[in-house]
């Protein structure tokens, strides 16, 4: 699998599936979630509402993932996952790793071969970028998946730089 990095907006990515840093209600929010629903249009929210009325009555638990249409986005699917809120006194990194693993598992079920991820939990949920980047890169590179490209889409230059520094270390190790 290739791990690639771009600085930009995840809603413009031409990939099979885009991962959404959703909240457990699945009914939309700010940040990436707001951008995906805003640009993808109402079809995504309609499908989220159907999930809430059927298989996901209690919402989506932290660390899990579920797919919907991508509406008007260039992608075919949105894979919604709920990152953990950062808690300084508690190690929630297994949940953040789970978001990445579960998103790739759902991608495999869909037959998606190219998947774009945002930096899950690093916005409103407060996770320090370098630690989130380490967890994301370690988890994705260790995953057994048929996905051929995982593209991390970083919103600003600082986030891009943080991922880029780490990916160099990964490259040197392998
Ligand atoms: P969370 O609630 O999981 O922290 P956020 O959406 O608040 O999710 O933020 C996650 C990351 O996504 C942050 O680093 C934020 O800067 C970034 N982000 C926000 N909008 C976009 C976008 N349109 N494309 C890519 N990344 C984005």
Automatic annotation (TrEMBL):
Organism domain of life: Bacteria
PROSITE patterns with a match to the protein in the record: MACRO
- Per its UniProt record, what Pfam families does this chain match? Macro
Q: Where is the Macro domain?
A: 1-171
Coiled-coil stretches: none
| NCBIfam families xrefs | PRK00431.1-6
Q: Which PANTHER family match?
A: GANGLIOSIDE INDUCED DIFFERENTIATION ASSOCIATED PROTEIN 2-RELATED (PTHR11106), MACRO DOMAIN-CONTAINING PROTEIN (PTHR11106:SF27)
Q: What's the name of the protein?
A: O-acetyl-ADP-ribose deacetylase (Regulator of RNase III)
| Species for this entry | Nonomuraea endophytica
Biological classification of the source:
Bacteria, Bacillati, Actinomycetota, Actinomycetes, Streptosporangiales
């Amino acid at each position: 699998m290739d791990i690639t990095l771009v600085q930009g907006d995840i809603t413009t990515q031409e990939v099979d599936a885009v991962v959404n840093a959703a909240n457990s209600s699945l009914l939309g929010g700010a940040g990436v979630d707001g951008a995906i629903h805003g640009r993808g249009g109402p079809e995504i929210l309609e499908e989220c509402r159907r999930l809430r009325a059927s298989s996901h009555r209690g919402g989506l638990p932290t660390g899990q993932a579920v797919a919907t249409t991508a509406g008007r986005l260039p992608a075919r699917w949105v894979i919604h996952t709920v990152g953990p809120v950062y808690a300084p006194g508690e190690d929630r990194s297994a949940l953040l790793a789970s978001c990445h693993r579960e998103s790739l598992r759902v991608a495999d079920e869909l037959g998606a071969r190219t998947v774009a991820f945002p930096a899950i939990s690093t916005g409103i949920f407060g996770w320090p970028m370098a630690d989130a980047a380490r967890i994301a890169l370690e988890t994705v590179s260790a995953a057994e998946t048929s996905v051929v490209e995982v593209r991390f889409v970083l919103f600003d230059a600082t986030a891009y730089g943080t991922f880029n520094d780490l990916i160099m270390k990964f490259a040197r190790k392998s």
